[in-house]
Amino acid sequence: MSTPAEHGPLDFPESALEGSITDRLRAVTAEVGHLPALSDASDTVLTFDELLALVDRGAAWILGQGLDPTDPVVTFLPYDRTAVVAQLAVVAAGHLLSPADHLSGPSVLKETLVAAQPAAVITDRGLEEQVRGAGFSG
Hints:
The chain is α/β, with parallel strands linked by helices and 138 residues long. Helices cover 44% and strands 13% of the residues. It has six helices and five strands, in the order ααββαβαβαβα. The strands form two sheets. The chain has a three-stranded parallel β-sheet, with helices on both faces. α3 packs across α4 (81-92). The longest helix is centred in the middle third of the chain and has 16 residues, at 48-63. The protein starts with a helix and ends in a 5-residue tail after the last helix. The model has no long low-confidence stretch (mean pLDDT 88).
């Protein structure tokens, strides 16, 4: 695994400071796409190019679900690259992101679901029962 110190300091382009999160990710990727962007506890490392490709694929999937653009989407995932990709994909698809902490317990998840009134919850199979138990049936 390489570290930023091995590559030297990153001089982000001016365009990386303007626009949406997705616009910024695209601008940075255009400049330094081959560099590491994300790593997780499993030692998986994604470059900016790989991260953006996954975000675009996730956003396309979300857009294909037929949700109203004003519908919030909750993410309820373990802390790994999947959570980061899912959260960026929700934003890239133009939805309000409401992340829920998968470790905080059922009452916090239920509060999040009540407050956000999401049209969808993005989770993994190991957490589906908790989402259903908190009252989401979408």
